[in-house]
Fold:
Amino acid sequence: MLANTELTVTGWIFMLTSIGAVGTLVFCCYKKILTSPEDDEPDLPGGLGP
Amino acid sequence: MTNQPKQQWGSRLGVILAVSGSAVGLGNFLRFPGNAAENGGGAFMIPYFIALVLLGIPIGWAEWTMGRYGGRKGFHGAPAILGVFTKGPVGRYLGVFGVLIPLGVYFYYVLIETWCLYFVIKYVSGGIGIDPTAPIGSSTEVGSQVEVTHTFFNEITGDGGNGILFSQPDGGGVHPIVWTFLVVASINIFFIFRGISKGIEAVCKAAMPIMAVLGVIILIRVLTLGTPDEAKPDQSVLNGLGYLWNPDLSKLTNFKTWLAASGQIFFSLSVGFGVIINYASYMKKKDDVVLSGLTASATNEFFEVALGGMIAVTASIVFVGVAVTQEGQGGTMSLGFKTLPMVFAQMPGGNIFGGAFFLILFLAAITSSLSMLQPTKAFIEESVGCSRVGSTMIVTGWGLVGNLFVLYYSKGLIALDTIDFWVGTFFILIVAGIQIIAFGWVFGIDKGLKEAHEGSNIRIPAIFGFIMKYVSPTFLIIVVVGFCINNAPGYIDKLFGHIAVELSDPKPPEGIADEAKQNWTYAWTQSSGKPGTLSNTSEAAAKFVAAPRAENEDNYEVEFQVVINDGTNTRTETVKQKIDVEGPPDARKTWMLLLITIAGIALLVFKGAKRGKELGLDINGEHPLND
Structure:
């Protein structure tokens, strides 16, 4: 960390790349989730559990 | 087998939001920005993303897959599922930690959740009493903002003495935080009783979007603050962002940076926590786990990097400056509960934004705390075959005992800190290690990936077979060793009464790189207080080991002097250090609670295995799944 200096060009690059990366990942994942059909096949009865 | 209907998630989105809700917690908003700022700013993101790809996502995929597989065999508790994957009792008993972690963390996490709600209530009813015109000051300057906020925090946490929250020294009776705790505990019990779909899933489906919307509103407010005080041009939004994001690439050669980044990823994603394995066990056999696991991780990362990385530290720099921010960023609690209240006191509309921010933290906390009770509840049901009502009563009663213990032993937050370190940090690394080895080596990586791909919407890239078998375990071992070297000795010392503290320059000048300080000389001496052993006296960080505690001795203060020469000038600084000799007995009592808890879980594992055998279930994972 550089002590109390304004956001530099490399700071902007690191910030926007990081936020862009997680933003893109989350957008693509939810897009895929919401457009993929969900399995509605009934499941086998459980064993010991609730 | 019980006669209850089998529980399942209502929808795929529901389980993803539930896992994300479990992962998104205070660490995303408070621990991440402080960690990043301390360890290279923007450069921190390089090891951070590498750890996400090599550690967080692969172990997460393994845990999702193991959970769904175990659920198809009728198991929902970590011990039974690990017993299946490691083909025998060794994994089953190691799985005790998979139940201990969520339950043990619940012991104290509900109290932190309570503080968040208490702050919300305070902000709604007018704030916590900070005068924004008072000097920022220090914790010893009466009436200053730092002193007021520290005093308020110490009061609500009961830092002043054991049992103080139940009996206030001025005859004020029970502190209102105890009643707030009862409300929070009741909310948790209510939603846990409602079950997977109507309880946890419903809460997470409502809370996650609310958190995102409130987070974006606060983010916009922070980013539009500009330079509120023209007399302090250094305290601007751009400087705040620069403080956090300007990269210091020299930090990449420091092992501690890599350790901090790996730790942040690891603890943030909740892998190895015993929650994902339980949640995934309620999925159907053809439900996707690969995309779901990736989406849950991505959601957590969005909250952490895009919101957590932009709000708290930036606002703190704008209103209280670098020095006070640096004091607070050492820990989640300090930044959140001591520094940010000063920020909100000075921010226009601060009570509204403070209330909204602590509401986000409360929602983040409750979605996490609900996830902590469910694994134990499921484990009790399958171990003794009791009803959902019975298991809810047992687990909430067990949790309540732990909560009250931590609430009572509040002095110096020793009980909370002890559980947080050993259960909420150390054992998580161990359980994650057991999981990835069981998945990649005992169950078999090829078989494991084939199982993961059942019903999956995306395929795990082939390279991850190699990563999950070799890279992740190796990376994890390095993290565990590094973590232990850095942290364990201090906690072991605390447990056995050898109080050791590290001393450092109390007034480090700003803007000087660590490399430039390499030629500085230091000379440490103890100037007053009970003598102890002072070592590393010519290093920047000296070590002081206090003398053994005399019987019934109270905490005391010692004073040191350090003469620092930077090659040109010499300055002498005084360092005061509080010695907490009363801590070790409380730490040992906390360990007694943990040992009793471990013994109780182990007994239930034994009973569960016996019961599973009687019911003809595949407790040792000897038979392939009959599809």
Chain A touches chain B through 39 residues (CB under 8 Å).
